[in-house]
Sequence to fold (372 residues):
Amino acid sequence: MEDARDSLDQEACYRAVLTRDPRFDGRFFTCVKTTGIYCRPVCPARTPKRENMNFVASAAAAEEAGFRACLRCRPETAPDMGAWRGTSNTVSRALGLIEAGALDEGDVEGLAARLGVGERHLRRLFRQHLGAAPVSVAQTRRVLLAKALIHQTDLAMAEVALASGFGSVRRFNETFQGLYGRSPSTLRRRAEKPGDAKAHEGVRLSLPYRPPYEVEAMMAALRARGETVADAVWRRALTVDVDGATGEVSARFESGNRLAVTVAASDLRALPGVLARVRRVFDLSADPEAIQRDLSSDPLLALRLRARPGLRLPGDWLDAGGDMASDRLEDERLADRAEHWRPWRAYGALHLREAGIDGAAMMETDDEKDAA
Fold:
């Protein structure tokens, strides 16, 4: 079975690094053999020689191979744009569960059972699409969230460990010592912390996404379905039954292609799950370039995609669907035509809906063409 690294065009990756092309940020990571560090394609550091570089599809693959995250370009700030997006329903669902903390207390066997697949098959899929094992992906998710909390918040290290999914402070310290050769506290850069943040106001994090993004359209869609949106801020109450804690989460778009999120929760252990749900609601992991590329083959969608490339698909706070949200189709009258839109059928339907075209109109048009 093809490994994720084998599916990458190594020379194309190198050219992207040479030009620091932002279109590739989050699509792959650069492993530098001479330093043992892995970077984003846009890292401002001097580009190493080609023979000293390998390119992998995920941060987890880099860390599993023994590389540590660059402290300059900070891989945890890259858009969530793994090469697997849109290619595997099982991997997509598994990563959503892992992001919400499924492997912080559970094991891979339990995760596979929740997905309805065998453990060995799940491991093969992860190796194929991400170049890393599920447990490595889970650890990298914990480490990168912890690094974001260290850099962006005033939380004490014990609180960072709890909020990022580590079972204990000791495990947290040992993991960072093993990856970076230093304690977590030495990674904190005082200048990066918000100076006016108060502990009782909640944990504030900045989540990246890939542009373009129609902010007003997303906020309008959330407001239309009954969510609380006021003064450009989205809010939601947290409950123990759903989120594992009481409190509130709010989000506001800020400059630099980021969503500023504040989570005030009674239990910091709820943070990974809450952040995962926020990312889903705001569709922060969407790949506009791939969506436009694949759907533009349909002449009905091509013009609309060019006109509104930043249209995103609002997600549900709770999503128990058995397939990828991007591939779901509510209007079955579109089914025949939408078969060619996979795995982005929901985006195709969204663009038509925004243009005022429904399945009935599509069927009438097709009938007229057949009659002619």
Summary: The chain has a mean pLDDT of 87.
